[in-house]
Amino acid sequence: MSRHTPTLRRTVAVATIASTAFALTACNRSGSSDSGSGGGTKTVGVSLITKDSTNPFFVAMQKGAKADAAKNNVKLTVASGKQEGDDQGQITAIENSIARGDKGILITPMSTGVNAAIEKARKAGLFVIALDTPPDPASTVDITFATDNRSAGKLDGQWAAAQMAGKPAVIALLDLFNDKIVSVDYNRDQGFLEGMGIDVKDPKKNGDEAKTGKYTGGKGGDYTIVCNEAGQGAEDGGRSAMEKCLAKNPNINLVYTINEPTAVGANAALKAAGKTALIVSVDGGCAGVASVKSGVIGATAQQYPLKMATLGMEAIAKIANGGEKPKPSPGLDFYNTGVALVTDKKADGVESITSDEGAKICWGN
Question: What is the pTM for the complete model shown?
């Protein structure tokens, strides 16, 4: 294996420092306990509730938690919605966790529709940690372990503006939902626009910015926003959303996508229409990194779901055994698990790693 480049070392170093700092306050992986109960660490019931069990991001999160559960003496229950948008599936899983007497819940909250169930769990004494998707408001849970999704979107936008090099940007925004408010959705979308140098109005609302104007990122230029379409975070949704956008304007040359399955679907629609466009995305799974390598995706912001799940589980196990609660990262209202832009087309002033480097630290198949 080749040595990491200086850029990758900096990226990994940030993640390592964050992990090490947290590990100093996390539970002892050897199974010993300072809970004062006289003996070993007690078994702790924890539920991991993801949005679905098919998205590679959530599959990686589940696998990582399962692999790490025994090290922390955790009895782990894994549950999820049937698909993106299944609030009731998550609500049922939360209620089951309360009924089992679990000590904590790790959840990627579907939307504000699950807030009341989370509050019920906390009132019942469970420590609730959101993973990947900070709830709105953030105080709905005890703490969130997540990527800084705003920063992830900004990296995409800064890179895209540099690549446009002053040319008119005809933009399609392929979001997660159009009927639910999810922080990861608006933070990535609005972060992308901010990175492009496009003024946003309500930073927590997609689609209310001016549809035409000037972007100030890179060399600056004119922009037109053709559409905000919901792809539901899935490949087929991304394809249908892109088809709708192309029907509005066939000259789209820049596509932002909420995640990599959406990006793959968007590329399929573009290819079928005989069109090409620069595509940016977020996630950094191994399949997504391979899409960067092949040129399907121009750049993707890589996040680390396994770290979110394992650190969250360690935190609940520690708390259940009398330890301290985790604290947010400095200057944020959540615990930041890191992000790195993966691209093979480096842009001046935008820190990134190559697809080969990203493949060494990616997740999923």
Answer: 0.77
